[in-house]
Design brief:
Blueprint lengths: L3 E2 L5 E2 L6 H4 L13 E3 H5 L10 E3 L8 E5 L3 E4 L21 E5 L5 H4 L1 H6 L2 H6 L3 E5 L4 H9 L3 E5 L4 E4 L2 E7 L8 E5 L4 E5 L18 H12 L5 E4 L9 H16 L10 H10 L3 H14 L4 H13 L3 H14 L4 H13 L3 H14 L4 H13 L3 H5 L2 H27 L10
Parallel strand pairs: 6-7, 7-8, 8-9, 13-14
Antiparallel strand pairs: 1-2, 3-4, 4-5, 5-6, 10-11, 11-12, 12-13
Length: about 425
């Protein structure tokens, strides 16, 4: 299908396809490449940050390219195609106005266009462009830039960058690669995500570039802390209005990869929560339990598992609030009783916690968790003899004591074996 145009030569997506809602084109509606598009027009954002800004949808071996226009020009992800900059002058931009280039991560399809841009003779001669990437980015990329005399600014995450006269927050989002960053503009609730969040797909965790699924979850949780409506991704059509849901879908998809569940397996939220608990991913357990409770309010197993996870995360007051609701309905719920004792123990309310352990043990004298935690409470209260009378606690205590002694002995041996670590008598 050929691209359709309005008067004035502006590209229009086919009527059958709304880029804001769908995110990707069905194959049968794929138009010719539209060229550079206005971010303000496509996203329907009137804020000055995007008034003159443009983007080029990636194709072939190149990512999306973003030009932020304001006091000067900033390129975010220059792609991997030397031809993309040829049309800037036709659109009224002066390449010499490009003062900054931000690279969201070091994959070739996002960063190699830097070198084509820097080969432009006036830019190469003036060397006034600042290139910005994460400090974990490819060393070869850094070496080449430094050898050619260009300024490279490396960020960690948390910084505020002034780009074309507007402030953007750097968010470190590892996972796809170790050096992934996103750029967040608070006033418009917009985030440039590189390959961390893509509409209707999930980037792989590239182990050769330091990618890891657990890091991926961490990066996505950083994004979920932000108020996000709009996404400018590294590939595919930008997402307006429903950006947060797109981040959540990516987060949920990565969880499924972590627990090795296929997307079409129809795994329930509770099944997912249980599998994530086995891997110690407690924040993800809470997320899944919340999803289950949104579907089935008051579901006991979801509330209970959420409280257990909150306890283990040290969010004891939140856990107690849930456990009190459970105990109001089931006063003899032995696991909820032991969990509330655990939560009080975490809040250093040792005297109060003992009663809950006793109540649990009265119902089930064999529950090891209650015995160990009761021993801990007694020990913290200075009742050492009483604590040591509880065999499971004594065994746990002695095992931990032995582990600590072994650890200190190993550290001492390492110090003794280090150069200059042994004293010698000479002469």
């Amino acid at each position: 299908m050929t691209k359709e145009k309005k008067e004035g030569g502006k590209f229009e997506f086919p009527e059958e396809f709304d880029p804001i809602k769908e995110g990707v084109l069905p194959a049968e509606l794929e138009p010719d490449h539209p060229g550079w598009l206005s971010i303000a027009e496509i996203m329907k954002i009137s804020d000055p940050v995007f008034a003159k800004s443009m983007f080029l949808i990636g194709y072939g071996e190149s990512s999306n390219v973003y030009v932020l226009a304001g006091d000067y020009l900033t390129i975010v992800d220059p792609g991997n195609d030397y031809t993309v900059f040829a049309e800037l002058e036709k659109m009224g931009f002066n390449p010499l106005d490009i003062k900054k280039v931000v690279v969201t991560h070091g994959h070739r399809d996002h960063c190699m266009g830097v070198f084509e841009l820097l080969r432009y003779p006036p830019i190469y001669e003036n060397k006034e462009i600042e290139i910005i990437n994460h400090e974990g980015g490819p060393q070869e990329f850094q070496r080449i830039l430094e050898e050619q005399g260009f300024a490279l600014t490396q960020v960690k995450g948390g910084e505020t960058l002034e780009l074309s006269g507007f402030d953007w927050e750097v968010i470190h989002t590892p996972g796809h690669t170790i050096d992934g960053i996103c750029l967040y503009h608070g006033p418009t609730k917009t985030v440039v995500t590189g390959d961390t969040v893509l509409p209707h797909s999930i980037g792989d965790a590239d182990k050769t570039a330091g990618g890891r699924l657990d890091h991926y979850l961490y990066g996505l949780k950083q994004l979920l802390k932000k108020d996000i409506e709009n996404i400018l991704p590294g590939h595919g059509v930008p997402v307006a209005a429903t950006g947060r849901r797109t981040v959540e879908e990516t987060y949920e998809g990565v969880m499924m990869r972590v627990i090795e569940v296929e997307p079409d397996s129809k795994t329930t939220w509770m099944e997912g929560a249980s599998l994530l608990a086995e891997k110690g991913l407690l924040e993800e357990v809470v997320y899944c339990c919340d999803k289950e409770l949104a579907l089935r309010p008051g579901k006991l197993s979801a509330s209970q598992l959420k409280a257990f996870a909150l306890n283990d995360m040290g969010r004891c007051e939140e856990a107690i609030e849930i456990l009190d609701q459970i105990l109001a309905e089931q006063s003899d719920n032995v696991h909820a009783l032991a969990a509330k004792g655990h939560a009080l123990l975490g809040l250093q309310k040792y005297d109060e916690s003992i009663q809950y352990f006793d109540d649990a043990l009265e119902i089930n004298p064999e529950i090891k968790e209650a015995q160990v935690f009761k021993g801990m409470a007694l020990y913290f209260l200075g009742k050492y003899d009483e604590a040591m009378e509880i065999e499971p606690f004594k065994a746990e205590f002695m095992e931990r004591f032995k582990t600590e002694i072994d650890k200190r002995q190993q550290e001492k041996e390492q110090d003794d074996n280090a150069p200059g670590g042994e004293e010698t008598n000479e002469g």
